[in-house]
């Protein structure tokens, strides 16, 4: 692969609001270059003012507090390296097809987010004994096709997840201020959950003592297993175990000889314990070599395999990751009406000639 990445661009899925996808097959290993990371927005970008640098924490707390940006930066910091995967990543692969942004495999990012644990802030405000959920509201808002008034982007977290020390209010990304499109100046980062939980441009944190029912919680980001009814619906939370074959490309034509099959794998629970590969449409499986980074908890891992091939023909290559909770990628993704959480065994078809 060329060392010059200046030709790498995002792939446009829509422009208003802006939704663009990472060129995931070409992403250099462990490269955290922000401008190659996907952008997923429900509304047009918010306009920020001086008030955007203040963070109110209100609701079921003992002392509501307005934290300044400076207060936050001066508190003990916490850094997490995190995969953020859009719940709609790979939606384009569902059969039958579903409506929504037709993401292929690149609604995915990994970076180092630095900030203050939400828990540290909630220790300062104190929590009322009946507090059950923490609602984060973004500065962005607009109309939805299904409701006739405007909404801001808002999501809640159960109190246990909100109090996990790795759930942070971030103010830096890869050692720089957060880029505007990714949530400047403050963004909630929720490791292990699909990225809809990581609310950008935080305007306010409200602690509540009942169930939150905003549309981005109870209409969107819900798995609906049925096409015609809401029976069996349940919320989207933790990332499923997943992987991508980055190389070779789907439908690539190669010659005989040695080829490196490589890709990434990640999970929302535990760590990746193995990645298996098949070069014969799933008949036999071999172990890929995992290049394990230190503290792989919230990161994707890179894997590879040296494939020596002398016989010409068509080959179906498959990658299947398993995590330390023994969750493994299924042969078929669980179909759901809004197309979330696609994690079937990753497949590319190539030809050797
Ligand atoms: N305020 C706000 N936060 C948001 C969103 C949004 O539209 N508004 N989109 C969510 C979704 S669905 C995803 S996948 C991620 C995308 O983050 P990125 O644009 O930084 O890649 O942000 C999440 N946080
Ligand atoms: Mo998303």
UniProtKB/TrEMBL annotation:
Pfam families: Mo-co_dimer, Oxidored_molyb. Residues 42-214 form the Oxidoreductase molybdopterin-binding domain. Residues 240-351 form the Moybdenum cofactor oxidoreductase dimerisation domain. SUPFAM superfamilies: E set domains, Oxidoreductase molybdopterin-binding domain. It comes from the Bacteria. Its cofactor is Mo-molybdopterin. Keywords: Metal-binding, Molybdenum, Oxidoreductase. PANTHER family: SULFITE OXIDASE, MITOCHONDRIAL (PTHR19372:SF7), SULFITE REDUCTASE (PTHR19372). This is Sulfite oxidase. It comes from Virgibacillus tibetensis.
């Amino acid at each position: 692969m060329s060392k010059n990445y200046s030709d790498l661009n995002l792939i446009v899925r829509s422009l208003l609001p802006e939704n663009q996808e990472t060129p995931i097959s070409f992403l250099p290993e462990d490269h955290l270059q922000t401008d190659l990371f996907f952008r997923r927005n429900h509304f047009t970008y918010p306009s920020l003012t001086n008030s955007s640098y203040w963070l109110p924490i209100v609701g079921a707390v003992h002392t509501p507090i307005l934290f300044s940006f400076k207060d936050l930066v001066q508190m003990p910091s916490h850094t997490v390296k995190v995969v953020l995967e859009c719940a709609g990543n790979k939606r384009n692969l569902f059969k039958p097809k579903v409506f929504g942004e037709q993401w292929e495999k690149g609604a995915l990012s990994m970076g180092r987010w630095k900030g203050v644990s939400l828990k540290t802030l909630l220790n300062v405000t104190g929590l009322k004994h009946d507090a059950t959920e923490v609602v984060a509201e973004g500065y962005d808002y607009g109309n939805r096709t299904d409701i006739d008034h405007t909404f801001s982007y808002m999501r809640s977290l159960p109190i246990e997840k909100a109090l996990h020390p790795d759930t942070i209010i971030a103010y830096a990304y890869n050692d720089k201020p957060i880029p505007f499109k990714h949530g400047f100046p403050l963004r909630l980062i929720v490791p292990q959950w699909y990225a809809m939980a990581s609310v950008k441009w935080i305007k306010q944190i409200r602690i509540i003592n009942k169930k939150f029912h905003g549309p981005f919680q109870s209409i969107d980001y819900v798995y609906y297993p049925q096409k015609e009814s809401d029976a069996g619906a349940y919320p989207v939370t933790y990332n499923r175990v997943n992987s991508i074959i980055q190389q070779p490309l789907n439908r690539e034509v190669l010659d005989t000889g040695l080829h490196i099959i490589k890709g990434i794998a990640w999970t929302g629970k535990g760590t990746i314990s193995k990645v298996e590969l098949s070069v014969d449409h799933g008949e036999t499986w071999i172990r890929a070599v995992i290049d394990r980074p230190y503290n792989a908890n919230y990161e994707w891992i890179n894997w590879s395999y040296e494939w020596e091939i002398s016989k010409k023909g068509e080959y179906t290559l498959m990658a299947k990751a398993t995590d330390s909770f023994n969750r493994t990628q299924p042969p078929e993704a669980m179909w759901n009406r809004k197309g979330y959480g696609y994690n079937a065994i990753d497949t590319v078809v190539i030809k050797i000639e």
